[in-house]
Amino acid sequence: MCHVIVTCRSMLWTLLSIVVAFAELIAFMSADWLIGKAKPSSSEEVDNRTGGQQEPYRPTLGIYGRCTRISHMQFSRRDTLCGPYAENFSEIASGFWQATAIFLAMGIMILCTVAFVSVFTMCVQSIMKKSIFNVCGLLQGIAGLFLILGLILYPAGWGCQKAISYCGFYASAYKLGDCSLGWAFYTAIGGTVLTFICAVFSAQAEIATSSDKVQEEIEEGKNLICLL
């Protein structure tokens, strides 16, 4: 018989698992990993809304994508254009970034799988006599290691020609030059930290769903068990 068991700790672990998976996925797909050096607008380009000169803009560069501005000379305005600069995996700007993409993709795939499984832990707490929470916690720890490897390798690619074109000639491995780090990089770091927190917290979720209080509720014949 299926018992639906919901506790504060198990629900919090499930929500964190979903948030972490989405955060890492969004960061990976974003082009805001590096914010390039400011490019001043031409003195002839005028902002139609204010009538004044447009402010300098800073293009952004991701692992496989980028955002820049294109000119519409007849209208004297600029539009931001975002999209992948690499049409296939081999065109990613640096071998280090290719490795980063592989490690991040592997970690994100594991996290998305765990996030999907975590939704069903309310009904199924074990498979083949193994706790789902413990298995998912182990997988989250492995995913966290993949994410760390990707984030460590990513700065090693700052010396590639693509990064130099955005960050200036002083850019090199682990040196940003004229660039700054964008929100996607910080989101990926935050998601990695939360991944390990989820891995540790999965043990608490397991304890909460197998506590004596839960067993008492099951023995009383309850199918829906909600505990704080």
Encode the helix/strand succession as letters. EHEEEEHEEHHEHHE
If strands are numbered along the chain, what order do they take across the biggest sheet?
A: 5-4-3-2-8
Outline type: elongated
Computed CA radius of gyration, to the nearest angstrom? 23 Å
The total of helices stands at 6
Structural domains: how many:
1
Indicate the CATH class.
Answer: Mainly Alpha
Distance between the termini: 23 Å
Q: Tally of extended strands?
A: 9
Short description, anyone?
The protein is of the alpha+beta class and about 230 residues long. Helix content is about 50%, strand content about 15%.
Task: Present the secondary structure layout.
Layout: E1 4-7, H1 8-29, E2 34-35, E3 60-61, E4 65-72, E5 77-84, H2 95-118, E6 126-127, E7 130-131, H3 132-153, H4 161-167, E8 180-181, H5 183-209, H6 212-219, E9 224-227
Parallel strand pairs: 1-9
Antiparallel strand pairs: 2-3, 2-8, 3-4, 4-5, 6-7
Helix pairs in contact: 1-2, 1-5, 2-3, 3-5
